[in-house]
Amino acid sequence: MSKLFVKGNEAIARGALDAGCSCYFGYPITPQNEIPEFMSKALPETGGQFVQAESEIAAANMLLGAGACGIRAMTSSSSPGISLKQEAISYMAGSDLPGVIVNISRGGPGLGDIGPSQGDYFQAVKGGGHGDYRQLVLAPGTVQEAYDLTMLAFDLAFAYRNPVMILGDAIIGQMMEPIRLIRREAQDREESESWRLEGYAGRKPRVIKSLRLAEGTLGKHNEHLQQKYLTARRECRHEEFMTDDAELIVVAFGSIGRIAKSTIRRLRQKGYRVGLLRPITLFPFPSQALQDLAEKGKRFLTIEHNMGQMVEDVRLALCGLAPCGFYGHLPGNLPTPDDFEGSILKEFASEA
Amino acid sequence: MQEIQAYKSPGILADIPTHFCPGCHHGIVHKLLATCLEEKELAEKSICVAAIGCGAFIYNYVLVDSLEAPHGRAPAVATGVKRSRPDSFVFVYQGDGDLASIGLAEIMHAANRGERITVIYVNNTVYGMTGGQMAPTTMVGQKTTTTPGGRKPELDGFPLQMTEIMSRLRGVHFAARVAVNNIKNLKKARKALLRAFEVQKLGSGFGFVEFLASCPTNWRMTPVEANERVAGEMIPYFPLGIFKDQAAEEG
After folding, report:
1. Residue B154: CATH number of its domain
2. What is the mean pLDDT of each run of 10 residues along chain B (251 residues)?
3. How many CB pairs under 8 A join A and B?
4. What is the largest CA-CA distance in chain B?
5. I need a surface site. Which of A7, A62, A214, B147 has the fewest CB within 10 A?
6. Which domains, and CATH codes, for chain A?
7. Per the structure, how many domains does chain B have?
């Protein structure tokens, strides 16, 4: 099978196309510009639609409109732009609408910088916009995974009728690696037939909305949403690396999981029994996998490229079964495997 | 005795009491819209994008496939709808607060891109649903709950004339301002709306119809007084007419 040598951003765009994405709405922001640039050429060639929107707000609302028509569509941005999209994402969640949102995140808060950071974990995983809702969050650690998970994101968005976010960073977006492409059969046109808008000919008119004023209807809808999120737990994905005999498990996601793996390989050569658990889905979170390891007596260290966000979910999952330390690499600095060695060794020595 | 049916309500107009206040013009605009959709045989292929405000509930009254947009974002949502389903007939129903204040960017750019959609813009110079606050269209001197001393241009600026602005954009192929305060204006409104629908069917560009509307409750007026205000105060500042009809101008 042929291989392509591409940036993560291009891999995401290609994954979307191969998953049947026919509409893309975006707005320029670094470090994700390769996605709209690629889509602006590729989509018209395949009969799709590319719109450079007037703002990230408008782009996300165009996604809402396409989702309501049952069309596979995507928007992408980076941290400050993702903040602007939260209104539409909340409406999509409240209206049971599918859509894929890509965040090639950068350092914050505010304008921050354009370097890599994982500072948007809370925003992505805990809701981001207003109201009791969740989006499914997928965090690629390689360029191949960026391609694969983007394809998966579309399937999940339609299976659950819910927004799905790809959470990458400047490392994933800008790094070049070879990828294998998967050629997909034409998408399932039936997947949205029972609810999409296309004019009411031959059936009753449909209304898609998030406003629920009648007594009890909003409560009932929230129950339905919670049930959906509970069902989505079966989509949990994570990678384990050398955990079987490990005393200490490093928990890290995305690009940082990848870099931590290099550190762990090196420490293994020096005889340290260290392993890695890399959550691939951040929501749903692989809590069970962490608990299983904790019950085997392992200790944990969460490493993130932020000041400590996912570590809260790790500690919640462990629920006191095992201790979990934290090392936060400062946003704005590109970490290397060396940067993690000291903190892992310190954690290793702390209680052993 | 032979019975003659003198009037038939449009089939897509729900036969239920509305939530609108007595004397409000939204109901008249809804009915006109439903009539024109049926006349042009567009109802079955329509997708309505509703906005936020008193007009948000249009999907309860005009029974076609409908979608709710966040406040001000309806033209962006409609862009996503029309681009996904170019064969659908897509119309947007927005009030003046929604369109001319929070949604100014979305309306300007959807219009400037020449999206093949029809925007129905209902201007009653106040935020109706939230209780009568100042809107971008509130008249100079008009008292609202947030301009208790009347709108002051030096502090609050001037009422926005959206149809004039729209008609200057190249992507806009039809722009008209109409009123429904009397039968004569109602007939002209019907003609303008039908023309706007034709423009979308032609697929040439963006269509915009502004309706001047009354809001007796928030104007603190009786329905009759409110109707008179449309003619006496609003129309002089917001003149009626077809501001642009690209296809007709090109012959």
Report:
1. 3.40.50.970
2. 87 95 97 98 98 96 98 98 98 98 98 98 97 97 97 98 98 98 98 98 96 98 98 98 92 72
3. 137
4. 67
5. A214
6. 3-199+220-234 (3.40.50.970), 238-351 (3.40.50.920)
7. 1
